[in-house]
C-alpha cells in the first residue's frame, strides 16, 4: 500500500515562508502536501506554491483542531518575527501533540558604529520614549496600523505612518498629529532619502524585522544621522529549532 503523503503546514506572512513553499513543492512534487497559511490581512497577495489557507485559526484550540483535522505532520513557523502570539501558539500546540516543528526567521538587523539606534524592549517602551522627548519630532513610523494610537500620545510630535493599506478608523477619529502614507516596499536607500528629506523626518520608529529588502530606511537614516527607535524582537519559545533561510530549513 502506498503511504499517505506527508502533510507540511507553513505559517506564512514573510517572503522566506513563500520561498520555502516554492522549494518544497519543487523538491517533493506529488509526494507531500504543502499548505501555506496566511492571515489574509492585505488584499493584494502574491501567488504561493502548493495549497493556500487564509484567515486565523481561532486561538490555541482552533489551531490544535486544525492540525488534527488536516493530519499535519510538521509545522514551519515562517510568520513575521513580531507575530509573537502565533509563534507561541504553534510551539506549544506542536509540543503537546508531538508534531514536528521549527521556526524560519531571518536574522535581525545589527547596528553599525555609524548608526544612532535607541533600543526599545517593546512597542510600549518605544511609544513612551517618543512621548517623553521634549523637542518636537517629525516621525516616520513603520510599525503597522494596530499600534498607531500608541505613538500619537504627545501632540507636539508629528507622525507619518507608512503602511500598505489604510488603517481601519475613520478620518474623524484619526489623531490630529497623524498622517498616513500608503506605500508598498521594498524601498531603496535613494527613495528613502528622498522621503525623509522631503517630509522633514527627524526620527524613525521601526521594528527589528530584519531582511535585506527593508534596510533602505536604515541606510538613509545613517546617511542623514537620524536617530532610530529600534524595537527589539520578542523572545522565541525555548528549545526552538531556528533556521534563517528557506534553503536551510530541514523538515523532520
Short description:
The protein is an alpha/beta fold and 252 residues long.
Q: Number of helix segments?
A: 6
Rg (C-alpha, Å):
20 Å
Overall 3D geometry? elongated
Tell me the number of strands: 12
What is the N-to-C succession of helices and strands?
EHEEHEHEEHEEEHEHEE
Describe this structure in words.
The chain has six helices and twelve strands. With 252 residues, it is an alpha/beta fold. Helix 2 (59-69) crosses helix 3. It has helices at residues 15-28, 59-69, 84-97, 123-132, 189-198, 216-224; strands spanning 6-11, 32-38, 51-54, 74-77, 100-104, 116-120, 138-141, 158-163, 178-182, 203-207, 227-231, 242-243. The model has no long low-confidence stretch (mean pLDDT 90). Strands 3-2-1-4-5-12 form a six-stranded parallel sheet, with helices on both faces. Strands 6-11-10-7-8-9 form a six-stranded parallel sheet. Helix content is 27%, strand content 23%.
Provide tags for this entry.
alpha/beta; six-stranded parallel β-sheet
Topology record:
Layout: E1 6-11, H1 15-28, E2 32-38, E3 51-54, H2 59-69, E4 74-77, H3 84-97, E5 100-104, E6 116-120, H4 123-132, E7 138-141, E8 158-163, E9 178-182, H5 189-198, E10 203-207, H6 216-224, E11 227-231, E12 242-243
Helix pairs in contact: 2-3, 5-6
Amino acid at each position: 500500500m502506498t503511504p499517505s503523503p506527508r502533510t507540511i503546514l507553513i505559517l506564512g506572512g514573510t517572503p522566506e515562508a513563500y520561498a520555502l513553499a516554492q522549494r518544497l513543492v519543487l523538491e517533493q512534487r506529488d509526494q507531500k502536501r504543502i499548505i501555506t497559511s496566511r492571515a489574509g490581512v492585505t488584499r493584494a497577495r502574491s501567488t504561493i506554491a502548493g495549497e493556500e489557507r487564509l484567515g486565523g485559526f481561532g486561538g490555541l484550540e482552533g489551531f490544535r483542531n486544525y492540525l488534527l483535522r488536516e493530519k499535519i505532520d510538521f509545522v514551519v513557523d515562517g510568520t513575521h518575527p513580531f507575530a509573537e502570539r502565533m509563534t507561541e501558539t504553534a510551539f506549544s500546540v506542536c509540543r503537546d501533540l508531538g508534531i514536528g516543528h521549527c521556526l524560519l526567521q531571518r536574522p535581525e538587523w545589527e547596528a553599525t558604529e555609524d548608526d544612532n539606534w535607541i533600543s526599545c524592549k517593546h512597542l510600549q517602551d518605544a511609544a513612551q520614549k517618543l512621548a517623553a522627548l521634549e523637542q518636537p519630532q517629525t516621525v516616520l513610523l513603520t510599525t503597522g496600523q494596530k499600534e498607531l494610537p500608541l505613538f500619537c500620545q504627545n501632540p507636539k510630535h508629528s507622525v507619518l505612518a507608512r503602511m500598505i493599506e489604510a488603517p481601519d478608523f475613520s478620518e474623524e477619529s484619526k489623531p490630529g498629529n497623524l498622517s498616513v502614507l500608503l506605500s508598498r516596499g521594498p524601498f531603496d536607500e535613494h527613495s528613502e532619502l528622498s522621503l525623509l528629506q522631503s517630509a522633514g523626518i527627524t526620527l524613525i520608529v521601526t521594528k527589528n524585522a530584519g531582511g535585506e529588502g527593508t534596510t533602505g530606511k536604515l541606510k538613509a537614516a545613517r546617511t542623514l544621522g537620524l536617530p532610530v527607535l529600534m524595537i527589539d524582537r520578542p523572545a522565541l519559545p525555548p528549545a526552538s529549532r531556528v533556521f534563517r533561510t528557506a534553503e536551510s530549513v530541514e523538515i523532520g
